[in-house]
């Protein structure tokens, strides 16, 4: 895999971890970097929460475990609030600032963010311009989709607008907003978008291994962004790099992935404290603790233990 340049940030390869709300927090990002990701993206942070000084939202900007390069994703429908959040993310050490213009969740859209920006080119342009101004030398990217409904491609024009307003790259989900996270990618639309701009376009959507990564790269995209397939297997990036280069690779077995979950649990507790850390780790337990005999019983028992130390001792013994 080749290095990827986003503005002045040089990533060791062109594989990125996608931002996923409630999932891609600091512990998982650190594991994915160790597992071969060239870039990791944080779960989206609400610009109004930063603007109004919400402590919980502010903590989402914190980077731990030497997790670089990291893109901090911001969402919001107000230029001033987004600019405030971009400046805060820059102060916290984000390597790249990403603007969410592709989330179809109704509450995000109602706030004028996510795919609402795809519907209003002027608002989209203003948002990117405000973010670029607030970011200074820190590169700004935008994550969007090929369009709202099948057959109506918007990403070519949006990518050109983003480039014109100073964005350093576009992360492009190859499905339409109406499709959410199911169905085939529109590879023709992805190819047209990649060809329309000089800045890198990084393709996203349904990548689960080297074969699907190769299909995205065939569109002319400069890189690949991986989401759900990295939950439970942070080393998928290393595997894809090896397989696309023609090298043999022995994937982690199910018990090895479950043991990585033990490390993730400890990292969550260190970051959030015993109670919150344990609860936070449970969001991904079903992805990590799977694929081996008696895994369902192990998961069920783990989910029922409320004490971090007890939960850790149980898993350590069960996975021995």
Description:
By secondary structure, the chain is of the alpha/beta class. The chain has 2 domains: 4-244, Alpha-Beta Barrel (TIM Barrel); 254-318, no CATH class. It is 45% helix and 14% strand. It has 14 helices and 11 strands. It has helices at residues 26-34, 47-51, 55-59, 79-91, 106-110, 121-135, 155-164, 187-196, 210-218, 236-244, 254-272, 274-288, 295-303, 308-318, and strands spanning 4-6, 9-11, 15-17, 39-41, 45-46, 70-75, 96-101, 140-145, 169-173, 201-204, 223-226. Strands 3-4-6-7-8-9-10-11 form an 8-stranded parallel beta barrel, surrounded by 6 helices. Strand 6 (70-75), helix 4 and strand 7 (96-101) form a beta-alpha-beta unit. Helix 1 (26-34) packs across helix 11 (254-272), helix 7 runs parallel beside helix 8 and helix 11 runs antiparallel to helix 12. The chain is globular.
How are the elements arranged and paired?
Layout: E1 4-6, E2 9-11, E3 15-17, H1 26-34, E4 39-41, E5 45-46, H2 47-51, H3 55-59, E6 70-75, H4 79-91, E7 96-101, H5 106-110, H6 121-135, E8 140-145, H7 155-164, E9 169-173, H8 187-196, E10 201-204, H9 210-218, E11 223-226, H10 236-244, H11 254-272, H12 274-288, H13 295-303, H14 308-318
Parallel strand pairs: 3-4, 3-11, 4-6, 5-6, 6-7, 7-8, 8-9, 9-10, 10-11
Antiparallel strand pairs: 1-2
């Amino acid at each position: 895999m080749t290095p990827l340049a986003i503005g002045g940030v040089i990533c060791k390869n062109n594989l990125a971890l996608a931002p996923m709300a409630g999932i891609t927090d600091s512990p998982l990002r650190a594991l994915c970097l160790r597992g071969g990701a060239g870039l990791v993206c944080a779960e989206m942070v609400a610009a109004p929460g930063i603007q109004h000084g919400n402590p919980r939202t502010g903590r989402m900007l914190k980077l731990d475990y030497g997790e670089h390069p990291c893109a901090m994703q911001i969402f919001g429908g107000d230029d001033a609030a987004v600019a405030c959040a971009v400046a805060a993310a820059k102060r916290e050490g984000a390597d790249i600032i990403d603007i969410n213009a592709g989330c179809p969740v109704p509450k995000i859209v109602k706030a004028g963010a996510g795919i609402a920006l795809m519907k209003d080119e002027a608002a989209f342009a203003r948002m990117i311009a405000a973010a670029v101004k607030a970011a200074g030398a820190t590169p700004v990217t935008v994550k969007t989709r090929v369009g709202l409904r099948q057959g109506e491609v918007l990403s070519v024009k949006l990518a050109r607008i983003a480039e014109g307003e100073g964005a350093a790259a576009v992360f492009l989900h190859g499905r339409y907003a109406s499709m959410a996270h199911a169905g085939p990618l529109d590879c023709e639309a992805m190819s047209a978008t990649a060809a329309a701009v000089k800045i890198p376009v990084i393709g996203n959507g349904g990548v689960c291994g080297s074969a699907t990564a190769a299909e995205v790269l065939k569109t002319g995209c400069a890189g690949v962004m991986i989401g759900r397939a990295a939950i439970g297997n942070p080393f998928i990036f290393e595997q894809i790099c090896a397989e696309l280069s023609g090298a043999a690779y022995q994937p982690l077995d199910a018990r090895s992935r479950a043991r990585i979950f033990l490390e993730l649990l400890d990292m969550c507790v260190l970051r959030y404290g015993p109670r919150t850390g344990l609860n936070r780790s449970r969001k991904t337990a079903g992805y990590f603790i799977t694929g081996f005999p008696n895994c369902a019983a192990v998961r069920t028992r783990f989910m029922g233990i409320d004490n971090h130390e007890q939960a850790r001792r149980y898993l350590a013994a069960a996975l021995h």
